[in-house]
Amino acid sequence: MTAIPLVPTHPGLPIAGSDERFPIRRAYCVGRNYGDHAREMGANPDREPPFFFSKPTDAVYAIDEGLPLDDVAPGHVPYPPLTSDLHYEVELVVAVGVGGKDISPDTALEHVWGYGLGIDLTRRDVQDEAKQMRRPWDMAKGFDASGPSSAIVPVAQIGHPDAGRIHLEVNGEPRQQGDLSDQIWSVPEIIAALSRTITLKAGDLIFTGTPAGVGALAHGDVVTAGIDGISTLSFVVD
Ligand code: MN
Question: If you measure from the C-alpha of residue 175 to the centroid of ligand 1, how many angstroms do you get, rounded to a whole number?
C-alpha cells in the first residue's frame, strides 16, 4: 500500500508586532461593496443585498513571505495561466477570532480579532465569461496565489476602523482611491449577513470588497496599496 500523501499545513498570516501566526480556516469575499465599483461593473449598488464567494485557504498568503511551497518569492505575484486580463482589487480584510451563526450587527464586532489588507486578484476575462455562461466564479477568483495579503493587525492595537483611505497604485500611478466609510455594507452588517449563510469560525477571513478603479496588470508592474491606519503592501507581477 502506498503512503498517505502528506499535506503541508498552511502557515496562516503573520501578526503585526508578534512572532505568532494567524491561522486561516476559510477565506470569504464580498462582491460589489462600494457603490462606485458596483456601477463600474454595471450593477445597481442600491438594491442588491451582499453576496459572497470564496477563495481557497492557501490562495491567501503573506506577500512579504511568498509561498515557498509553490515557488512564489517574497514580494512577487505570479501572473496566472489562462487569462490575459488579470485585475487588482484592494480590500480591507476582516480576521474572525470568535465564531458564531446568526450574529447580530450590534454584537458583530466582538467576533473580530484583527484587520488586514489584501488584494482580491481576479481573472476578469474568465469572470466575464462565467457571468455570461452562468457558471461559477471559482476559477476567476480562486487560482493559486490570488490573495496576496499583509500581516493581520490585532484589534487590540487599532480598534475597529470604520473610516480611512483605501488605495492602490500601479507603477506609482493612483488607480484605486476610496474610503472605508464608502462601503455599502459595513463590517458588522457583512458579518451578520455571512453568519446567516454559514457558521463563522475562528480563523475565517473576509475580504470586504473593493472601491472603483479596478484594472489590468502586466508583467513587471509594481503594485503598492494601503489602508490608512492599518497596513501597506507592495509586490511585483512576474
Ligand atoms: Mn473583490
Answer: 15
Q: How far is the CA of 225 from the centre of ligand 1 (A)?
A: 14
Structure pTM? 0.96
- For 126-161, the pLDDT digits (tens) are 999 999 999 999 999 999 999 999 999 999 999 999
pLDDT band at 166 (very low <50, low <70, confident <90, very high): very high
> Which positions ≥6 away from 21 have C-beta within 8 Å?
11, 12, 13, 14, 15
User: From ligand 1's centre to the CA of 187, what distance in Å?
Assistant: 15
Report the separation in Å between the CA atom of 91 and the middle of ligand 1, taken as the mean of its atom positions. Answer: 7
- Output the CA 87–ligand 1 centroid distance in Å: 10
Whether the pLDDT of residue 46 is over 80: the answer is no
Hey, where are the domains in the chain?
A: 13-237
Q: Are 59 and 77 in contact (CB under 8 A)?
A: no
- Could you tell me the CATH superfamily of domain 13-237? Fumarylacetoacetase-like, C-terminal domain (3.90.850.10)
Distance 4 CA to ligand 1 centre (A): 36
